[in-house]
Amino acid sequence: MLKKIFCLAIFLFSLVLIRAQETDQLFQGSNEVYFTFPVKSTAELTELSKIISIDRLTPDMQVFAYANKPGWEKFIARGISFEVLQHPGTLIRPRMLDNVNVREIVDWDFYPSYDTYVDMMYQYEENFPGLCDVFSIGTTNEGRELLVARITDNSGQQENEPEFFFTSSMHGDETTGYVLMLRLIDYLLNNYGENARITSIVDEIDIYINPLANPDGSYHVGNSNIYGAQRFNAMGVDLNRNFPDPEDGPHPDGNAWQTETVHFMNFAEERNFVMGANFHGGAEVLNYPWDTWATLHADNDWWIYVCREFADTVHVNAVPGYLTGFNNGITNGFQWYSISGGRQDYMNYFHQCREFTHEISQTKLLPGSQLPAHWDYNYRSFLNYIEQAGFGLRGRITDSATGDPLVAEVYVLGHEADSSWAYSSLPEGNYHRLLHEGTYTVQFKCQGYYTQIHEDVVINNRQSTLLDIEMVNPFSAVGENAEADFTIYPNPAYANYIRIESSKTFNNISIFSLDGKMQEVSHQDNFVDVSQLAPGIYIIRLESDGRYSERKFVKR
Fold first, then answer.
1. Pairing state of beta strands 96-97 and 111-112?
2. pTM for the complete prediction?
3. Phi and psi of 152, rounded to 5°?
4. In the predicted model, what is the mean pLDDT of residues 339-366?
5. Distance between CA atoms of 232 and 241, rounded to whole angstroms?
6. How far is residue 517 from each of residues 34, 145, 251, 332, 550, measured CA to CA in Å?
7. What is the pLDDT of residue 444?
8. pLDDT digits (tens, 9 = 90+) for 86-129
9. 497 pairs with which residues across the strands?
10. Is 429 exposed, middle or buried (0-12, 13-18, 19+ CB in 10 A)?
11. 55-64, 302-311, 446-455, 536-545: which range is least confident on average?
12. Contact 55, 65 (CB under 8 A)
């Protein structure tokens, strides 16, 4: 009996050694393995997504996924049948170029080396001063830069414009968007002042473009080539599972926030992005929120409209069959398959930025010869999508007395859910609430000011509705020459009355509690009956020829 137990132990130990050797061989020179397997249900897939990185799910429930070494060991322990596949980053030998002069590019059928990419970005800044500003939001674990090009008509200023953000290739082996975003920078800059539509877009929208969000993954084998590009970052972490999640908390993947994640989170905190998109590969579909839960976004109608416009424009210009899967090119993220920690949900929920995911090419590492065609399929839709940031409800929110810009909440009553509302931002006090066509009631709220509610606000698709808001501070005077408008006196002869002395003729007198509710009072000449008011602090407003002034008074 002891001999049998000993032999069994030796056998199991041998299996562990063999499995460990196979794992080491599989991961030699790599942070990840690419494989496929079937699942029986979405519930099983959701459970597996906690240990591996799901790449895509086919209609027949076949899963394609990546795993780092710890995730792989947990996966194979489950005894699921699988097939290891050739890594997408090694399927082709891409055409690479060094020493590119951006003024001389004609075909855009190549990938730049890392150093050339950096040089190209700064060439744009040098060639278009005042129109393009290039900067780094931080460096990666391996010292590569996360570069952003800001394109706007006055690049050194903050203006009353919506901020827009395109970023690509946070999965390092999904590189089609990388080159297309470089080309978009080139296209916008070279057509400014020559093409009326491009000029208007750049004049009216503050555009930020990050072509490469995971350079350590893309240049995994070295700066000279993207052959061997990897999905994960240098630490073996999927950046698109590493963000705080609305449902699953700050660390849904169980990893600390990665260097790249922190840089992009800090960048989002510094800006007030209204819209954006991140570009991926391995499928062809526009994936809109939410990814983490089944609940539809409060602006689901808007998302379908915008994605439909994007896809339909692509269909007019692409070869038959491109971007036609799913719902003819678009899908709700959760309805495809659920993920946690995605960048898309993070930006929508925590930053009120309308961001979606564009799976732009079925092939992750696309041959350079196919890049120009994918540009031609998509660039018109890029422009449509950027323009959407300027539509909907927009305006400035300021202090009615001083004109100073304010940070205030813009909330559509009976509509908002899951952090869908918007905020104005400094230094302009501008706000941008993107909405599908309809009639809405909108509330504007700022601490220390009266809340305002505006009814019957009409929104039309692809148009702007302008609504500037002057917020009233109950403890300051408002209106023209407000300080000289009127004075309040208690009347000793009438304990329940106050007396108004004004340098102007006024048409109406109103009294409000501090929560903005109008109080029923009567007045005759310059005496106001406050006998029905409970003791407390109130605001009295005098209106004169369309203007008004306010003062605080205390009912004892």
1. parallel
2. 0.84
3. -160, 160
4. 97
5. 10
6. 62, 54, 43, 42, 14
7. 96
8. 999 999 999 999 999 999 999 999 999 999 999 999 999 999 99
9. 529
10. buried
11. 536-545
12. yes
Residue entry with tokens 């692509």: 314
**Cα separation of 160 and 424, whole Å?**
10
Q: Which structure tokens are listed for 274? A: 């209204």
CB atoms within 10 A of CB 64: 17
What is the distance between the alpha carbons of residues 351 and 475, in angstroms, rounded to a whole number?
A: 31
Question: What's the CA gap between 202 and 44, in Å, rounded?
Answer: 47
Q: Which two tokens stand for residue 379?
A: 């660039």
Which residues are within 8 A (CB) of 442 and not within 5 positions of it... i.e. 6 or more apart? Answer: 393, 410, 411, 412, 413, 433, 453, 454, 457, 467
Buried b (16+ CB within 10 A) or exposed e, 489-528: eeeeeeeebbbbebebebeebbbbeeeeeebebebeebbb
Task: Name the pairing type of β-strands 430-433 and 392-399.
Answer: antiparallel
Question: Quick check: helix, strand or coil at residue 340?
Answer: coil
Instruction: Pull the structure tokens for residue 264.
Output: 């992009």
- Token digits for 167? 């970023």
Q: Quick one: tokens of 120?
A: 């190209």
Enumerate the active-site residues. 359
- What's 368's DSSP letter? G
- DSSP per residue, 477-544: --STTGGGTEEEEE-TT-TTEEEEEESS--SEEEEEETTSPEE--EEETTEEE-TTSPSEEEEEEEEE
Helix (H, G, I), strand (E, B) or coil at 338: coil
Which helix (H) or strand (E) segment is 470 a member of?
Answer: strand 469-471
* 216: phi then psi, degrees, rounded to nearest 5: -65, -35
Is the separation of the CB atoms in 269 and 350 below 8 Å?
Answer: no
Q: Are the beta carbons of 221 and 227 closer than 8 angstroms?
A: yes
Angle at 260 between CA 265 and CA 355, to 5 degrees: 50
Asked if 88 and 173 count as a contact pair (C-beta separation under 8 A), the reply is: yes
| Buried-state track 110-137, b at ≥16 Cβ within 10 A, e below 16 | bbbbbebbbbbbebbbeebeebbbbeeb
Helix 114-127 crosses helix 176-191 at what angle (to 10 degrees)? Answer: 20
Beta bridge partners of 425: 430
- Contact call for residues 423 and 409 (beta carbons, < 8 A): yes
Taking the C-alpha atoms of residue 319 and residue 322, their distance in angstroms, rounded to an integer, is: 6
- Dist CA 498 CA 542 (whole Å): 13
The separation between the first and the last C-alpha atoms of the chain, rounded to the nearest angstrom, is 96
- The confidence band for 204, taking pLDDT boundaries of 50, 70 and 90, is very high
Strands 536-544, 508-513: parallel, antiparallel or unpaired by DSSP? antiparallel
477 pLDDT more than 60: no
Q: Is 104 helix (H, G, I), strand (E, B) or coil?
A: helix
Strand partners, 540: 511, 551
